[in-house]
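Structure (tokenized):
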């Protein structure tokens, strides 16, 4: 289940400072998923915010799209060693999701849940303060299903498996509960600049 990554050509010196160790630059946007691509109908889409096991807020697609929208252009880095510069996203900051629910971040840990059963753990501090969003558009258009549409988590400063595709909720937890890839040998945190790809990195 654990893949070491693709090969690639190192970039010129003027961009290499933006690449974390062990990464190569691509102009493409590779499609990598843990399983088949689910087809999520926005008519039945729901996003649920939980504190521990208790749901505290829920939005339909229309309700979620009515929340404050923000734009974020960031470099992204996949654990399989590719990086893509200047990716442009639009969506709802996690800060604005919390504000809409009328709560502050209640615990130090968060588990992201997706429609295909995928989960990934992220420290709450890495989701707040303008660092992360639930993205609804990529490059000004709805996110394609194979890239996680209709909505995906975007945590661009961590390896991209932390940016869960097909997201349908965030759950605040008291402990750092490992997610799908983390239980299968990937690092619990996943900082590209420290090459935290696998458990012992």
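Design, position by position:
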């Amino acid at each position: 289940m654990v893949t070491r990554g693709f090969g690639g050509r190192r970039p010129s010196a003027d961009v290499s400072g933006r690449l974390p160790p062990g990464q190569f630059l691509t102009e493409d946007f590779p499609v990598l998923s843990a399983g088949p691509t689910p087809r999520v109908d926005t008519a039945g889409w729901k996003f649920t915010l939980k504190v521990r096991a208790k749901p505290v807020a829920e939005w339909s697609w229309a309700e979620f799209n009515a929340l404050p929208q923000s734009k974020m252009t960031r470099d992204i880095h996949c654990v399989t060693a590719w990086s893509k510069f200047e990716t442009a996203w639009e969506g709802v900051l996690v800060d604005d999701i919390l504000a809409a629910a009328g709560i502050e971040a209640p615990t130090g840990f968060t588990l992201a849940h997706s429609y295909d059963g995928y989960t990934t753990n992220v420290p709450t501090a890495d989701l707040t303060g303008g660092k992360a969003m639930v993205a609804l558009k990529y490059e000004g258009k709805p996110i394609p299903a194979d890239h996680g549409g209709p909505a995906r988590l975007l945590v661009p400063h961590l390896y991209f498996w932390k940016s869960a595709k097909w997201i349908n909720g965030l759950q605040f937890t008291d402990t750092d509960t490992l997610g799908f890839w983390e239980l299968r040998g990937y690092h619990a945190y996943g900082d590209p600049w420290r090459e935290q790809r696998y458990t012992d990195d």
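Reviewer-requested clarification: The chain has one domain: 43-194. Helices lie at 13-16, 61-65, 94-101.
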